[in-house]
Amino acid sequence: MTRKKTNWIITVLLILGSLFILFPIYLAITIAFKTPPEMAGNLLVLPKSWSFDNFKQAIEMTNFFNAFKNSFFITFFVVIFTVLTNSLVAYAIARNLHKKFYKTLYFYFLSAMFIPFPIIMLPLVKQTSAWGMDNLVGLIVLYVVFNLSFNVFIYIGYIRSIPVELEEAAIMDGASTWGVFWKVIFPLLAPMNATVAIITCLGAWNDFMLPLVLLSDQSMATLPLVQYIFQSQFSTDYNLAFASYLMALAPMILVYVFAQKWIISGVMRGSIK
Amino acid sequence: MKKNHVFMAIALPALALFFIFHTYPALQGIFYSFTDWKGYGSWNFVGVKNYLNVFKDNRAGAAYIFTFQFAIVTTIVVNIISLLIAIGLNSKIKFRKTLRAIYFLPYILSILIIGFIFNFIFAHFLPQIGTVLGSELLSKNILGNPDLAWIGIVIVAVWQGVAFNTLLYLAGLVTISEDLYEAASIDGAGIWTKFWKITFPMIAPFFTINMVLSMKNYLMVFDQIVAMTGGGPGKSTESISLLIYRGGFEGGQFAYQSANAVVYFVVIVIISIIQLKILNRREAAN
């Protein structure tokens, strides 16, 4: 088989296409550094000076660090608890799928994927506020529980490919079911754990609807929610607004720049399950 | 025997929590859809009145039509573009890793914030370009036009949605052996024949997943609209999710919007089932 030559036409087309992806981000970066008078001119040119004044002002106005802290707190704990608990539940179901109860449970979680969030939204908000869960901890609990639906599905496919003999050997050595899971199964799940962690992290960090309907106190707002709350106060000061947007997007972009290979392969692994 | 107890001790709390926070609210929603509850105060049973009203409600009707139009157009456009990009990324090109990373970038970004950025592009950037080019169409903000605003929302949804679908198609494309194409070339097959006889049948399962997932996601469109139009101008871009949110939380229509949500749920399930049936039959025929 001969090595094919580089297809330059497709390469060029794809590069041109990628400009469409990068353009809004370019615009966000340049506008975040501009001043209101510069907005009257050509929007495509670079800012005259790279001053961080807009960022300073946006940080103060939106209380950026507080929102960042909220988003980080939620995302961190949701990822940890989702990976630890959802894998465990999936393991219990995967090893008992021949039993009616566990099989029913599997389909129960699975079918919930077809229920759109707006259907449970109204009663859920009543319920969580009545139970004092209209806060960050309540949000974490809900994410971890809701994630079960999708994660049980993708974990089970993976767990069933792990030979039962491995566990039996560990049990012969005197390990308990609990011990078998944490010492034998959980480490073997590492690639799936990474996938679940990545998808969960993106979902929790970027989610807007659940924080919007659930959180009652503005001081608990997450980064996307803060952009929404301050929309009217940014009014026509786009430089300030874009500085704020950029700071909200930056953490994920930074993570992506360093870990894009893992993120892409992780999401791919989850999607072809 | 002890082993079974451990499994039960894991499964039962999971079942209980999921029921309390997911199934129970869903059942409550169904229950209240048969009442006249405003979200506060007292309530009475009203039978199927809410359901009859949903079907007679022009605002709900408009929301359904908008949501469907948006979801169908976006699903088709996203899938065509992502298939093209995936085929491009799968061919022998330079900078493949970098390009793949760029095309996947939108997936990791907040839809709401991207929506705000696009809002600015439509309101200020495109009109500036339009004025320079002397184009009547571009010089106005399309988000301010009740007939065109939905296109702006499609553009944002496509910009972001292409990332994930491209990745899925790419996962399918890498499984196709190069030999198949070479054999076809020897037989004199053109690019078009190769696509329909080799590429498409091989990635058909990915096509099915993409179509079903995209459609379901776009029927639930919310963030993009909040950021771009807020449902306007007028109510021209009010999606079903936004209507349930607005009416339920701000309009005192808790019970009524619960009925709307149940209708919405039934619609989504029916569409998903029809899609799976049609697409699976087509896959089987290939």
From TrEMBL, chain A:
Gene Ontology cellular component terms for the protein in this record: plasma membrane
Ranges that cross the membrane: 12-33, 71-93, 105-124, 136-159, 180-205, 240-259
InterPro entries: MetI-like (IPR000515), MetI-like_sf (IPR035906)
Single GO biological process annotation from the record: transmembrane transport
Entry keywords, A to Z: Cell membrane, Membrane, Transmembrane, Transmembrane helix, Transport
Protein's UniProt name: ABC transporter permease
Predominant location category: membrane
Topological type in the membrane: Multi-pass membrane protein
Signal peptide (UniProt feature, chain positions): none
Cellular compartment(s): Cell membrane
Family classification: Belongs to the binding-protein-dependent transport system permease family.
Span of domain ABC transmembrane type-1: 68-259
TrEMBL record, chain B:
Claim: Signal is one of the keywords in the record: no
Keywords of this entry: Cell membrane, Membrane, Transmembrane, Transmembrane helix, Transport
GO cellular component: plasma membrane
Biological processes annotated in GO: transmembrane transport
Transmembrane segments annotated in the record for this chain: 62-89, 101-126, 148-174, 195-213, 261-279
Gene3D superfamilies: MetI-like
ABC transmembrane type-1 domain ranges (all copies): 64-275
The protein's name: Sugar ABC transporter permease
Native source species: Peribacillus loiseleuriae
